[in-house]
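Closing statement on the guanosine-5',3'-tetraphosphate sub-project.
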Amino acid sequence: MSTSNHNPDLARDISRRRTFAIISHPDAGKTTLTEKLLMYGGAIQEAGAVKARRAARHATSDWLEIEKQRGISVSSSVMQFEYNGYTINLLDTPGHQDFSEDTYRVLTAVDAAVMVIDAAKGVEAQTIKLLEVCRLRDTPIITFVNKFDREVRGPLEILEEIEDTLKIDCAPVSWPIGMGKSFRGVFDLLSDRLLRFRAGEERQSTDTEVMEGLDNPRMDELFPDEAEILREEVNLIRGASSPFDAELFLAGMQTPVFFGSGINNFGVQEVLRALIEWAPEPQPREAVERSVEPTENPLTGFVFKIQANMDPKHRDRIAFFRICSGRYTPGVKLSHLRLGREMRISNAQTFLANSRKASDESVAGDIIGIHNHGQLQIGDTLTEGEDLNFRGIPYFAPELFVSARPADPLKSKQLQKGLKELGEEGAVQVFSNELGRKLLGAVGRLQFEIVAHRLKGEYNVDAAYDPVDIYTARWLSFPDKETRAKFRQRESASLAEDVDGNPVYLAPSRYKLQITQERFPEVGFHATREHGEVVTQG
Ligand code: G4P
């Protein structure tokens, strides 16, 4: 299909789209920031709505209840709102107990990310992991250093930690004055003005006092103790740090850094503005066959997340589909390339906030939810006929493992079938070792609970899980058959196959992984695997 088939209306609509996710460690302030952004977009009227939903979800330890809540959370998985004439898609990255491979996969469907750092805690474990996933596609990152209304670490120290730990160049675009009780505001390094901080949950940026220029005498009047320090720091930081460079940002090599206090609605609008002005519009996507421009007329896209129905009697699922090109219109006929058949999509769920008319407004960059009965899997590409396979939905090396067996030994066939299908769907990773044992791998514990529940509800089998001593998994690639045989001979106890028959090394410890890598330098040990890709050679 020709790429010259571009449409100016479509191009205009796409240029006004931004699709992003927030990455953070639990408690850094993701929910608070989400809420404030939704308030700016008019999608919610008051703060507390998202939080109340989250609290309801986590107040219960019964995960069935969590699943029920998830029925509601289909709409909070993608939150679309309008701001300044732009349509913004905010994709939720489930955290806390909900942390799972979905959290990683969501990041393959966005064009940018906002990283929230708790200024007291600095860069934390989950942020590091999520940033690594962003790196796979060089996703541009905007950083928001949160909670300056508390006693936190100094801004320089935080910048250094981000640069050292995350290996990304920081370009501070604002600079905080004081912190905690003496937090006075931030100095905007780009527009050369100071935004004065005042505490208050419901504050709007319109009532923020602004002082133009670093030498503004009003600063000395208001904060005689801090004004001089601020001038020194700003001059120092201007000399010492990298200036913001849009190209480096878009290449994922530099992150603009904002300081603020989400809960006080301070610094939030600046992040939103950066998303609109700096973050990219929906970008071309690489398929195995070619690169697809968002402005091409035919509708194309891929599935990055599946949500099973909360009611086990109905096996319908919602596939979250990122539109890569074209415009969705109800009734569109799409080719399901993996199955080699057509699907008519008439009742896709769209995520438009309040006022606008739904359904025919979704274009490249947007997400639609497609109801189906299991035909769609994570990584599936749908097009209007062209044979394309989008890349970029990887499997991630699991970090939690259990072995699964049926509580009733007579049900082992059902268990096998269930695990095969759930493994293919992407709910959990399933490995079979040389002894035929089924090992489940996940990045979040909830995945195991969901699988147990679905095995019972959909396959009528009670699964029992046993702990296993596995530290992590690596997909293997061999240069030749001989190496593969040698590896197998030596490491058979730690060898397994994934659902697609790829060889996987299940390392019992970090140390064992390291010495095995050293022993077999010619073997590739891969921490991710592309969906549908076969890693093995030889
Ligand atoms: P998360 O989604 O990343 O897990 O974080 P969330 O927004 O829920 O925020 C975690 C805690 O940090 C919450 O407090 C929240 O109120 C607080 N918080 C968020 N932003 C700021 C900020 O800018 N300054 C200060 N001081 N606190 C902030 P909590 O006590 O866990 O919950 P709550 O009882 O306040 O709801």
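The longest helix spans residues 63-77. With this model delivered, the sub-project is considered complete and its resources will be redirected to Aim 3.
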